[in-house]
C-alpha cells in the first residue's frame, strides 16, 4: 500500500516544530513529574491544548508508561471541527511528528472497518483535528527506540447507545496486554466564550467552583461507571470536550475481562477565574492501571 502521510499540522503553532527543542521540552516535563514507569499502566487520559498550556500536565499521564511490552496504541480523540454521529478511522498510513514518525496499524484498521460501524475520515479532517495530534509527540518520545503502531480513532458526537456499542467492539483489545490506550480530553471550558458559566458560590471564588465541578467528574470517571458519568454530564453539562472518548473508554473497561482502574494524578487550570469576564480551560491527567486486587 502506498504511504499516506498525516502531517503534523499544528507543529510550529501549538507546539514547537524544532525537533531538538521539542525533545528537550518533553524530556524536561517527563522528568519533573517524577513518576515511576509501570507495566501495569494500560492507558491514559491526557489533555490536548497547546503545550504552553497543558504540556506539563500531560506529562503526569505519559510519564507512567512503560514502553517495553507495548506494541500498539489506540488513540481516541474528540472531533472539534467535523460533525459525525459515529467514530471515524484514519486513512493515513503514518502520522508524522517533528521527533519521529508513528506508523498506523493497518491490520487493526481493517478489522475495525470490517465491523461496518466506523466511517473513514478524510485526510483534511484528520490534519485539521488537534485532539489526537497533541498526544503524538509525547507518544513518539515515550516509545523512542521501540516498535509501536497506532490506531487513531476520531470519536464523533456519539449517542449513549453507540458509546456502549463502540466500547463493546473495542473491549477485546483491552484484554491484550500489548495494547495501550491514549484518551484525549480537556476538562471544564469556563467563560462566556465557551457559553458555560456554572458557578456554585459555596466553593468561594469561581476557579474553586470549577475545580469542585471537575473533581466531581474525575471521581465519577474513577469509579469506572459510564452511566454515572452520563448522569453527571446531563446534570451539570460540564464542558469536558473528550466526554465521548472517555465514555467509550469506560465502556471498553466495563466489557473487558481485565480489571483496570483509572486514577487521576494531576489537575491544572489555564488561569484562575475570579470574575465573569475571565475564562479558563482545565486539564486533568489520569493513568489506567490493571487492578490485581479485584481480579475475578
TrEMBL record:
Gene (UniProt): Vigan.03G236300
Region described as Disordered: spans on this chain: 272-296
Biased composition (Polar residues): 272-283
Family in the record: Belongs to the MEMO1 family.
InterPro entries for this protein: MEMO1_fam
Domain of life: Eukaryota
Protein name, as recorded: MEMO1 family protein
Pfam families noted in UniProt: Memo
NCBIfam families xref list: AmmeMemoSam_B
Amino acid at each position: 500500500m502506498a504511504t499516506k502521510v498525516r502531517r503534523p499540522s499544528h507543529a510550529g503553532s501549538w507546539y514547537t516544530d524544532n525537533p531538538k527543542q521539542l525533545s528537550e521540552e518533553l524530556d524536561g516535563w517527563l522528568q519533573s513529574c517524577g513518576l515511576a514507569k509501570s507495566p501495569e499502566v494500560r492507558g491514559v487520559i491526557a489533555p490536548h491544548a497547546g503545550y504552553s498550556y497543558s504540556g506539563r500536565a500531560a506529562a503526569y499521564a505519559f510519564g507512567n508508561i512503560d514502553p517495553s511490552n507495548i506494541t500498539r496504541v489506540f488513540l481516541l480523540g474528540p472531533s472539534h471541527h467535523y460533525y459525525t454521529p459515529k467514530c471515524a478511522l484514519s486513512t493515513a498510513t503514518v502520522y508524522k511528528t517533528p521527533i519521529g514518525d508513528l506508523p498506523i496499524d493497518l491490520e487493526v484498521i481493517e478489522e475495525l472497518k470490517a465491523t461496518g460501524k466506523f466511517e473513514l475520515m478524510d485526510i483534511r479532517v484528520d490534519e485539521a483535528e488537534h485532539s489526537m495530534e497533541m498526544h503524538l509527540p509525547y507518544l513518539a518520545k515515550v516509545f523512542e527506540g521501540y516498535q509501536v503502531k497506532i490506531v487513531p480513532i476520531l470519536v464523533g458526537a456519539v449517542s449513549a447507545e453507540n458509546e456502549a456499542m463502540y466500547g463493546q467492539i473495542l473491549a477485546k483489545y483491552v484484554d491484550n496486554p500489548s495494547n495501550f490506550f491514549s484518551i484525549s480530553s480537556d476538562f471544564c471550558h469556563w467563560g462566556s466564550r465557551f457559553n458555560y458559566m456554572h458557578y456554585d458560590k459555596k466553593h468561594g471564588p469561581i476557579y474553586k467552583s470549577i475545580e469542585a465541578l471537575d473533581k466531581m467528574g474525575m471521581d465519577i470517571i474513577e469509579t469506572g461507571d459510564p452511566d454515572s458519568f452520563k448522569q453527571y454530564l446531563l446534570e451539570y453539562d460540564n464542558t469536558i470536550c473528550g466526554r465521548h472518548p472517555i465514555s467509550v473508554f469506560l465502556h471498553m473497561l466495563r466489557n473487558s475481562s481485565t480489571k483496570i482502574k483509572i486514577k487521576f494524578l494531576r489537575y491544572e487550570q489555564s488561569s484562575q477565574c475570579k470574575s465573569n469576564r475571565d475564562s479558563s480551560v482545565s486539564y486533568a491527567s489520569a493513568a489506567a492501571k490493571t487492578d490485581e486486587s479485584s481480579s475475578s
